[in-house]
Amino acid sequence: MSKINWLPLESNPDVMNKFLEHLGVPPSWGISDIISLDDELLSMVPTPVLAVLLLFPISEKYNDYCNEQEAIAKSGDQNTDPSLYYMYQTIRNACGTVALIHAVANSREHFKLDPTTVAGKFIEDTKSMSPQEKAEFLEGSNEISAAHEASAEEGQTEAPSLDDKCNLHFIALVQVNGKLYELDGRKTAPVAHGDTNPDSFLKDAAKVCKEYMQRDPENLNFTALSFGAL
Predict the structure, then answer these.
(1) First-to-last CA distance in the chain?
(2) Annotated catalytic sites, by residue?
(3) pTM for the full predicted model
(4) Most CB atoms within 10 A, among 112, 142, 167, 173?
(5) Angle at 92 between CA 89 and CA 97, to 5 degrees
(6) Is residue 189 a contact partner of residue 78, using CB atoms and an 8 Å limit?
(7) 157 vs 175, residue with greater confidence
(8) What is the DSSP string of the chain?
(9) How far is the C-alpha of 173 from the C-alpha of 103, rounded, in Å?
(10) What span, in angstroms and rounded, lies between the C-alpha atoms of 127 and 161?
(11) Per-residue pLDDT at 212 exceeds 90
């Protein structure tokens, strides 16, 4: 983790959509609330859904899960699509931005992302880099840093001090070439969760979210958001 601190990005669709607008994502695509992970209520989420973001508390259960995935990554048993866009998180409190970059970068074939926009240029410049190199490139991106700061300060809750520690963390669940991946900038590698398709993706991603909740049932502070059509 670098010495750079950002303000946490609030899990608020309005805040996140303003941030995505700053990055140049078309206004017809953005973040929506997922009010329930129950199958019958998932039908209320605007479609198509291209990615799902999950916000949850960092706990010992989460750290144990990270260690398990680290062992799998080192064993070489995890097969990852080479076209998957994945980066590490080295900036404290940048997990929201990293999750949104993961969502946009792995969904851009579904919408027109202008290559001259902040997001378009960042993704194009970094797509061939390693996860660590992408993270370091983000550290030097004044445009994304400024957009993140402006959006973080627009939240409904009072922005904390840069020195405050936040124990909440964002990950992204994306679909690439018929596979569901969990992208977490704190992990060594993406986590593969099997087959999916555009019709089943939201339910498949909701299942992964439920597994997070089942691992840590005493924690109630989980929030799920979709990235897709508005």
Answers:
(1) 34
(2) 95, 169
(3) 0.94
(4) 173
(5) 55
(6) yes
(7) 175
(8) --S-B-PPPPS-HHHHHHHHHHHT--TTEEEEEE---SHHHHTTS-S-EEEEEEEEE--HHHHHHHHHHHHHHHHT-----TT-------SBT-HHHHHHHHHHHTTGGGS---TTSHHHHHHHHHTTS-HHHHHHHHHT-HHHHHHHHHHHTTSSSPPPPTTS---EEEEEEEEETTEEEEE-TTSSS-EEEEE--TTTHHHHHHHHHHHHHHHSTT----EEEEEEE-
(9) 8
(10) 33
(11) yes
Q: Which residue, chain included where needed, has tokens 């992208």?
A: 183
Q: Which residues touch 48 (CB under 8 Å, ≥6 apart)?
A: 110, 198, 228, 229
User: How many of the other CB atoms lie within 10 Å of CB of 219?
Assistant: 15
Q: What's at 51, amino acid-wise?
A: A
The residues, any chain, with a CB within 8 Å of residue 142's CB and separated by 6 or more, are none
What percentage of the chain exceeds 90 in pLDDT? 83
- Reported as a single tens digit per residue, the pLDDT across 71-123 is 888 887 677 899 999 999 999 999 999 999 999 999 998 998 999 999 999 99
**What rounded mean pLDDT belongs to the chain?**
92
Q: Do residues 135 and 183 lie in contact, with contact meaning Cβ atoms separated by under 8 Å?
A: no
The yes-or-no verdict on residue 7 having pLDDT over 70 is yes
**pLDDT exceeds 80 at position 24:** yes
CA torsion sign, 116 to 120 to 122 to 125?
negative
d(CA 196, CA 179): 5
Residue type, 9: L
Residue type, 111: F
Quote the Cα angle for 7-12-18, to 5°: 80
